[in-house]
Request: fold
Amino acid sequence: MSTAPLSAPPPRPSSATPRRTGRLFALTGAVVGVIYGYDTGSISGALVFLSKDFQLTETEKGLVNSILVFGSILGALIGGKLADALGRKVAMLIVAGSYAVFVALSAVAPTVEVLDAVRFLLGVAIGISIVAAPLYVAESTPARIRGASVAAYQVATVVGIVLTYFVNWGLSGGGHWRWMLGLSAIPAALVVIPLLRLPDTPRWYVLKGRTERAAEVMATTDPDVDPHAEVAAVRAALAEESGGSVRSLLRKPYARAAFFVVGLGFFCQITGINAVTYYSPQIFEEMGFTGNGQNFLLPSFVELASLAATVLAILIIDRLGRRVVLLTGIGTMVVMLAVLTAVFATGELHGATTWVGFAAILLFTAAFNFGFGSLIWVYASEAFPAQLRSTGASVMLTADLVANLLIAQFFPSLMAKAGAAATFAGLGVLALGALVFAALTAPETKGRQLEEIQEYWRNGGSWPAPAPSARVSAGPLDGPAASPASPS
Reply:
């Protein structure tokens, strides 16, 4: 990387334009998040009708979903390298263009084999976007709105899923599954326009040694900082981040942190959230609801509750703490899965029982977004030092996608062969395992600096004792020295 000295600061533009530019970065990322959410959930309604058109077995239904996840795993594995080699902006252009092309092709697929092939390629684009879009937003928005911008991307994903269900409901009367799959091609194509006009991120320009360009972009996005000082800080941070490897995660002192993050990623998906996302119309039909109106509209309300839960978690996570939010979410999931098991075990469902089942699905999904959905990336970003942070996040994401793949492929077959009660009972056992795992391994990191959190893992999973100077300063009248914080 070039270390050429920076020359005189570039002219500072008016504050109005930089603020608009910074928000345009965030808005563009959010639009991609909405499209990602829509494409993830659109199959839930389309599958009901295309299964009849293509006469699919339960295994083939699972493959239509799981093939997307197969592609996502590949995309996530190459997404970071692609974003580093070609740039965050180019990666986002590839994502948006691929969304538009492959979504349109899936809408006109003549056979299920063609549909599977196209959905695999769409999955690759989704995997790249999972890595590139949050990176693009975080690196290109000013510090004062960075947290809100990244959180807005997560919320935008849920908004996309909500839109999916309302679109599915509106099109269900005519069974228009091709429109359900293809509509997101329009915004995907349109988002290419602002992407072409925006620069890449300052961090990527520094990564490539283009420090002058990095300073220019910094000046156009955030008028409140010294662009040269910020670029120097980015360069120093990049120097610290070199050298991370998967092998490093398996050695002390970070093997425990890796175990926690990978386990959390796996439990996040294996407890069944995407069973609801992918197969909710079938679940509601099994529950006793009849007619496309109910089976397609009810999931919309489920996702609206999830959106509210996500926003609530963002608002309170730094007040109540990570563990409270995470354990409350997982605990509620366990209870709701037990309720669903009991509902399906009653046999033929009708009347109030069906609405109890609906409420359980709604609260299960909201609880997931409140706990797992809101905290998975927070813990992944806090658990490791700078040089291992991206590697740890990638490993966690791989565990997350592998579990997602298992759910997508086998859930419909389990429902058909073992029955709904046994299937949800199995998910309940897994959720209970997730609760125990989180209770034993998740630290409370509220208000802690990243350096303190890393000391927690270096100290074998417990907070180090206060420094001697801190104990001495208390003085004899202040009572006994504070004891070390117990492991969380």
